[in-house]
Amino acid sequence: MPASAISFQHKGASLQREVSRSMSFSTSPNDTFHGRRLSTNNSAEGTSPSLRRTGTQGTPKQLKPFREQDIKILLLENVNQTGRDILTGQGYQVEALKSSLPEDQLIEKIKDVHVLGIRSKTKLTARVLEAAKNLIVVGCFCIGTNQVDLKYAAQHGICVFNSPFSNSRSVAELIICEIISLARQITDRSNEMHRGTWNKVSAKCWEIRGKTLGIIGYGHIGSQLSVLAESMGMDVIYYDVLNLMAMGTSRQVPTLKALLERADFVSCHVPELPETMNMIGAEELDSMKTGAYLINASRGSVVDIPALIHASRTGKIGGAALDVYPSEPAGNGDYFTNDLGPWAEDLRSLKNIILTPHIGGSTEEAQSAIGIEVADALVRYVNEGVTTGAVNMPEVTLRSLTMDEPNHARVVFIHQNVPGVLRRVNEILGDHNVDKQMSDSRGDVAYLMADISNVKEKDIAELYRELEGLKDKIVTRILY
Ligand SMILES: NC(=O)c1ccc[n+]([C@@H]2O[C@H](COP(=O)([O-])OP(=O)(O)OC[C@H]3O[C@@H](n4cnc5c(N)ncnc54)[C@H](O)[C@@H]3O)[C@@H](O)[C@H]2O)c1
């Protein structure tokens, strides 16, 4: 995707955005790209047989942290085996528990861990994080991160990663299933059969070949969907606030209205933002072709549900599929009632409406991909200090140090974002050659990474002591 910025009109407002930096990531990884850590030292014995055969020039060097000697990892909530394998393969001490822990037990358990892996049930409050004196990074092996006090974590130098895009393909495949199911009224026919009724009809049942799919939001999921839909013979148009390169023969349209007027199927794939709130309301439903279908697997706030119920009852739309709702139950059970929202029972009564409980991304493949993506991010952070993809820290990366750079060290200095810090840090680093350096800030926290050469092992303790002495320091790490 081009990293361009462009203005588009939506509901009269001019929105200017840049392609999210996360767009450069691949989605749904199915293998790790890290080498296995064979030894904690960098000697020839510690390298793989192939490295010993071919020499080590240019090979990325496996760094070891100066302070955190043996990395201790606690994984809660039955983190996928793919993630556990990557972390144990690095030689870290990994303890994996099947469930979450009550707050007091968690506080006791995480006192000395360096890395914590959780899913959505473990609440990392300021009280819990405060107890974790050695904690440098948290991996949320899930999409959401609202179970973590991200601000407190950042202010204490604890980096947090998640996996927002590993389930994109799973969502796109569900949408394809829904497009065909809506066009053939599959759920109505199936429900009738479950009630014992044989109702063979072909009226208002369609092939999808040659029909137009309109995708709103052409990001990770929207663009995957585009490819799948085209391969089934659909024409694809899309609307996005960014000017994005089309997949295959799909075409971008300049306004939401243009998309709604032309599409036989409209599928929403935008994030939850103030400007996407009720993005599909009465006016937009009215702009759609009579008998067209609406699909929403993005966020519940994107579609105005009462307006959709009205459009379904009047026959304006031919059907709809919803996977997300303005409010959703916290757990499984008989909760899809009007206690959830005044619309729930109306939705249940409509014809040709597919209702699913936020399962778009819920597949075994997505879980496995999440394990790989988050574990890879943790390894990169622990071994190299790279924060790419972090949700609460600035994104900072440097190319790897290599095996033919023996007297190099990497300095990571997380600090308060106040004037004068970089000057003081560089006075300390200045006794060595600073080969490369990058720093960035996010709110009141800044992250600096520098690779320095001509560093003897005995210098490292002194460097660490001097950096730790700076008053605006949050966390110092040296990797060598
Ligand atoms: N149902 C599920 O289980 C499930 C799973 C994963 C993601 N999601 C949801 O799907 C949605 C899309 O996810 P994604 O990973 O593709 O996101 P993404 O960030 O990759 O893509 C979103 C796209 O929407 C565009 N956009 C933003 N505001 C817009 C606007 N006002 N009008 C038009 N386009 C706009 C962005 O430019 C971007 O191209 C998100 O809301 C996410 O929460 C749901």
Automatic annotation (TrEMBL):
Listed EC numbers: 1.1.1.399, 1.1.1.95
Domain of life: Eukaryota
UniProt key word NAD: yes
Comp. bias regions, Polar residues: 21-31, 38-60
Swiss-Prot/TrEMBL keywords: Amino-acid biosynthesis, NAD, Oxidoreductase, Phosphoprotein, Serine biosynthesis
Keyword Oxidoreductase (UniProt): yes
Catalytic activity field: (R)-2-hydroxyglutarate + NAD(+) = 2-oxoglutarate + NADH + H(+); (2R)-3-phosphoglycerate + NAD(+) = 3-phosphooxypyruvate + NADH + H(+)
GO MF annotation list: 2-oxoglutarate reductase activity; NAD binding; phosphoglycerate dehydrogenase activity
Region feature (Disordered): 1-63
Enzyme class: oxidoreductase
ACT domain segment(s): 410-480
GO biological process: L-serine biosynthetic process
PANTHER family xrefs: D-ISOMER SPECIFIC 2-HYDROXYACID DEHYDROGENASE FAMILY PROTEIN (AFU_ORTHOLOGUE AFUA_6G10090) (PTHR42789:SF1)
Known function: Catalyzes the reversible oxidation of 3-phospho-D-glycerate to 3-phosphonooxypyruvate, the first step of the phosphorylated L-serine biosynthesis pathway. Also catalyzes the reversible oxidation of 2-hydroxyglutarate to 2-oxoglutarate.
Entry's family note: Belongs to the D-isomer specific 2-hydroxyacid dehydrogenase family.
Protein name: 2-oxoglutarate reductase
